[in-house]
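Our consortium's second objective concerns turning raw sequence data into structural hypotheses that experimental partners can test. To show how far this objective has progressed, the report includes one record in full. It was chosen at random from the queue rather than selected for favorable results. The single chain below, 290 residues long, was entered without modification.
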Amino acid sequence: MGYPPGGRQPPPFGYQQPPQHHQRPWPGAGQAPPGAPFQRPPAPQGKPGPIRIVLGVLIAGFGLVCTLVGGGVIAKAISNSNQNILNKQYVTNLWRNLPAETLFPATIGMWDPQRRDQSGSKGWTRAALSSETSCGKALAGTLAEEAAERGCMAAMRASYVNDSGGTAATVVIIAFGKPDADNDLDAILDQAQHDKRDYGIRVLAAPGTKWTNSARAGSGAYSVQVPNAQLFVAATAGPVDGRRPGKIPQPWGDRDGDDNADRAPWAKASDGLSESISAHLAAQIDKARP
C-alpha cells in the first residue's frame, strides 16, 4: 500500500520517540537556554515589618501566660486531691454521730495517749455506760456552773475499773456549742477540788462495785486537741470499795500536809484517763477524713 505524495512516512518498527520538553521562549540575555525545563522563579523575600514582630511577640507571650496558668490550675487540682478535708459539722456533733460504745471504748490502755496504738496493757475496763446526756445530771459544783454558762450541750458518762480492781473512775465527755468554751476548765476543776473538795463529776454507779460520790478522791480533765471538736473530757477517781479517802496515817501519809497530798494519786489517775479518752476521740475524728 502506498503513501500519498509528500505525505509523512511512519517511523520504522521498534522506534521510540525521545521525550519532548515543553519549552517556552526565554527572551533576553542571561536567561535559560532554549530547551531547558521551566522553573518558577523564587518569590521575593523581604524583612518582616515592625507590626508583624510586635504581633508575634504578643502571641508568644499570651501563649506562655496560658501555659503557666494552666499548669498552676493542674498543680492546684492535684494538691487538693491529696488533702484530707475534715467535715466540721461532723466533728462538732461527734457526740451525736457516734454511738456511746464508740465514744467510750470497752477497754483503754495506759500507754502514752499521744500514740494512736493503744495495744498495750488495757489499763481500764468499762463497767457502766449512761444513756443520759443531761449536763445537770452528769456535772456538779463549779464545773457544772461553768459548763452551763459556756453553753454545755450534752454530757455523756461512763464508769471504768482499773486492772488491779482497786480504783474506779467516772469519765464525762462534755460537748459545747461554741469554740474555745473549754478554755481553762481543767484549771478551774483542779482549783475547786483543792478548795472545797468539789470534784465536778457525779459518779455513775457500776455493778459489782461500791463506787459512789463519797468515794471520789481526785479529778482531772483534758481537752480534745482537734480544731472544731468543742469537746472536753473530765474524770473523777477513787476507791472501788466505796471507802472514804482521807489523810493516810503515819508512817504512810504526808506528815505535815493536808489530805490533798494523799488524794493526789487518784487525781493523777483521772488526768491520765481523761487524756487517754481525749486521744481516743481524736483518733475517731481522724477516721472521718475522706
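The partners drew two points from this record. The chain has a mean pLDDT of 79. Residues 139 and 145 are 9 Å apart (CA to CA). Both points have been shared with the crystallography group to help prioritize constructs.
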